[in-house]
Amino acid sequence: MNFELIRALETLLLPPSGLITLGIIGLLFGFTRSGRQLLGISMLLLYLMSTTYVSAWMNSRLTYQYPAVDPALLKSENAPQALVVLGGGYYGESVEYGNTAIGPFFAERIRYAAWLAKQTELPIIVSSGKADAPAAVRILKEEYGIENVTQESNSWTTDDNARYINQLIKEKEIGKIGVITHAWHMPRAMWSLESHNIDATALPMGLLASMPAFDDYNSWLPSMAALVRSRNVMHEFFGLIWYQLRGMGETLVDIFSFSAEDTTAETDWQNPIKQD
């Protein structure tokens, strides 16, 4: 499917646009009971997805199976031989820097990759598009002082990442990699890598330390940050379904198997560095 078409469909279907569209349809048919119900449901969902508690709960459905990793474990006998950071978009040309600017998600991944590289002395492979991959390599070298960096710059999708990474690591005779991306993106990334028979260790970042308290009114105040998190989860959920329909992966990640007692505010359920 055409990349621009995919992005257009995402904009139309994912929140907030998808819910706003449903609300407008409900408003146009407000003279009917079904129209009023559609308007009410769309506005309610838009509010809930904008709250800290609901967005964190949705996020937990994807991220619980890939906790953070202690860097010391990356020095063990069966540790990855390279760190692979997956692209996360770019903003075109930056006025203030006078060069290509990578997006905020990509910048967060790059920072974590640089930190892990300094902890482990492992080389970094950047996997992204023709514009942002070179920009990420430049940032790693010039701003973080990481010299051992290579790139593949042909990827537009997560499946592309896996396919081109597979070619590159075979050329470099790398047996195992550590893949760096946001926790909410990790299930789809790992499915893609496994479908291409790549031995990978998940190195997620951007995890939540704990669930917001259910009885805290701040957990129910809407915010743009919470809505963005909900949107990312919905994007990945539909992405997993799409990949399964294309025959990638044997089964979907079981996003409904996470028990309620695992999402308490007192539990460091996404911080394995603090776990036994």
From TrEMBL:
Keywords: Membrane, Transmembrane, Transmembrane helix. The chain crosses the membrane at residues 12-31, 38-58. One of its GO terms (biological process) is Gram-negative-bacterium-type cell wall biogenesis. Residues 81-239 form the DUF218 domain. One of its GO terms (cellular component) is plasma membrane. This is DUF218 domain-containing protein.
